[in-house]
Amino acid sequence: MQVYESRSAEELEQYAASSFAPALAAVPEDFHCRTTLADLGGGIAAGTFTTRPLRIQATRKGIARGDGMDTLMLCIHLSGAGTLQQHGRDASIAPGTAVLFESGTPFDLNYAQTGESLTLQIPRDLLPLRGNEISHGLAQPIPLASPSLQLLRLYLDQLHKVAGSFSAPQRGDAARAAIDLLAMTMRGMAPSVQADDILVEVLREHIRSNLGDPALTVAELARRHHISVRQVHTVFAEAGSTPADFIRTERLIAARRLLADPAQRSRTVAAIAASVGFAELRTFERAFRREHDLTPAQWRTDVSRPGADTAQK
What we know:
The structure is a single chain. By secondary structure, this protein is of the alpha+beta class. It folds into two domains: about 1-185, Jelly Rolls, CATH 2.60.120.10; about 195-305, Orthogonal Bundle (Arc Repressor Mutant, subunit A), CATH 1.10.10.60. The protein is built from twelve helices and twelve strands. It has helices at about 10-20, 60-65, 130-135, 145-160, 170-185, 195-210, 220-225, 230-240, 245-260, 270-275, 280-290, 295-305, and strands at about 1-5, 25, 35-40, 45-50, 55-60, 70-80, 80-85, 90-95, 95-100, 105-110, 115-125, 140-145. The chain has a seven-stranded antiparallel β-sheet with strand order 1-3-4-11-6-9-12. The chain has a five-stranded antiparallel β-sheet with strand order 2-5-10-7-8. A hairpin with a 2-residue loop joins strand 3 and strand 4. Helix 6 packs across helix 8 (about 230-240) and helix 7 packs across helix 8 (about 230-240). It starts with a strand and ends in a 9-residue tail after the last helix. Residues about 310-313 have low confidence and may be disordered.
C-alpha cells in the first residue's frame, strides 16, 4: 500500500497533478492530508482519503496540461461535510453519501470540515456504461441507502487493507469486481437509455475514430450514418453540445497529446495539425489559441520545461 502525506497547498497540488488532475489548492496553516492507495493495476486504485478543511479546483486550462487521461474518482464519505461542483451541478458531501467526479472536466471540491472517505479511482473508459449514463451520475449525491453502494462500501473497506497481499492476477480480479459494483450502483441511478442517446454515442465514437479525416464535417457525419444534418444537431443539442464543437474539441485534445509527447518532438506543428484533421495550420493555431491563450508552439515549449507548473495554465 502506498501512503501520501500533504502538509501544504503546494504538496497537495503536486500529488493531485501526479495522481488525478492538475489543480489549485487552498488550505489552512495547520493543514494535513493523508491518502492511502492500493494499486490494482491499469490505472485502478482503492484507498482512503483523510483531510483537514481544503478547497481544490481543477480549471479547463490546468486540465489541458495534464496527461489527457479521463479518470473517475468515487468518494464514499465516512465523516465530514462539504461540496463538489462539476458540470453545473452542486453536490452536498455528508457522511453516508458517495459522489463521483472526473478528471477531464473542471471541478471544485470543498471540504468545510475534517473528513474521511473511501476512494475508488478508475479510467473512465473501463466503466462498462454508456457515456450519458456516466455523465448523468457525475456530481450527484448517491445515498448509502442504495444496496449496491452498501456492497461497494464494504468491499472497498476491506480491499484497500488486503490488496497488498494479492498476486497480480488477483489484483486484476479485485479491480474487475470493484468496477462491476460501481457499474451496478451507477445503473441504479441512470436514466433509461433512449434511441437518441445511443445515436449520439455512435456519432461521437465515429468522430473519435476519424479525427484525422479533414473531410469529417457535420454534413459528412450525417451522410455516413444515413440521417439528416438536422438530426445530428438535435441529438448533440440534447447531450449539451453541438457536433462542430465536439469535433473541434476532440481534435484539439488529440493535438494536445501529440504536442506534449516527447516522442513526437521531431514532428512539426503543421504535421500534427494535419494528423488530427486540421487542413489549415492557421485554423488550427486560431482554435488552439482561443482555447489555451497560447499558440501550439508556445504551449509545446511551455509544457516541455522541467518543473513546469501544470496547474497554473
